Amino acid sequence: MLFKQQALLRQKLFVLGSLAIGSVLYLVARVGTLDRLQPICPIESRLPSPEPEQIPLRTLQFKRGLLHELRKGNATKEQIRLHNLVQQLPRAIIIGVRKGGTRALLEMLNLHPAVVKASQEIHFFDNDQNYARGIDWYRGKMPFSFPHQITIEKSPAYFITEEVPERIFKMNSSIKLLIIVREPTTRAVSDYTQVLEGKERKNKTYHKFEKLAIDTNTCEVNTKYKAVRTSIYTKHLERWLKYFPVEQFHIVDGDRLITDPLPELQLVERFLNLPSRISQYNLYFNATRGFYCLRFNIVFNKCLAGSKGRIHPDVDPSVVTKLQKFFHPFNQKFYQITGRTFSWP
């Protein structure tokens, strides 16, 4: 009897042992299979790979906030050190043209996460007193930025000031130069309008545009009048071309920037070798103001100052025609030099 019980017990142990060994072998085989499969198709590889960023600016909201605090003077030295912030010399400058849309262009380019703008016109290269302060003074006027960002400043007087091309060349001979232009007669009237408004604020009288733009003795266009002289774009550009090749200039259509800004901004992105980041989402038309405003994100929008888009005074049509005929040959030469044609009269 005892012999039978021992035999039965050995049989049960054998069965249990076989089951245990089988289970272990199954687990080993299963783990081995998973180990072999893992490198072939890990979980991460089944997810779409993120598009590689040329410029690592995905923490944009935080960075814009930090740079804003720096502009207000609220950021600490520790924050500056921790985030590797620097004041960089500009790698691109909007050199003109006055009343061509320089402020609008600068603000719109600032939509790009790789761009940081100098908020004020520095007037370093066109002002002898500022220039004498040296390049470190100029750098100190630049905003804080991350090393991979591009600093841009704008001072429209640069375009027409004789000393400026050589001075900028000495700082950086490979700098990118942006020129925004409008139809020359319209630009001249806009220039006059801004000066007129300033005179009226001070209760001062000012001549009518026609009297300034036309020489009363000869009845010809008065090229001594600054608003007219500034609109002779080719004369100023030729001076710049003594120092910089035409490839370092990009001409922006200021009239188109008002009516359809995105294509112009995309051309500038390409010229500056920036990844395309500005989209139609960032630009919306404000019917009240009559021009486009900027949308940085879901909570932060910005329109240009109310002084932009001033109403121009009526100008004698015969004077307008005379000016258009005067500018025409200069415009043709400007098209030839820059390779960009406009539908100006």
TrEMBL record:
The active site is at residue 99. It catalyses: alpha-D-glucosaminyl-[heparan sulfate](n) + 3'-phosphoadenylyl sulfate = 3-sulfo-alpha-D-glucosaminyl-[heparan sulfate](n) + adenosine 3',5'-bisphosphate + H(+). GO terms for cellular component: Golgi membrane. Keywords: Disulfide bond, Glycoprotein, Golgi apparatus, Membrane, Signal-anchor, Transferase, Transmembrane, Transmembrane helix. Disulfide bonds join 293-303. This is Sulfotransferase. It comes from Acanthochromis polyacanthus (spiny chromis). It holds the Pfam family Sulfotransfer_1.
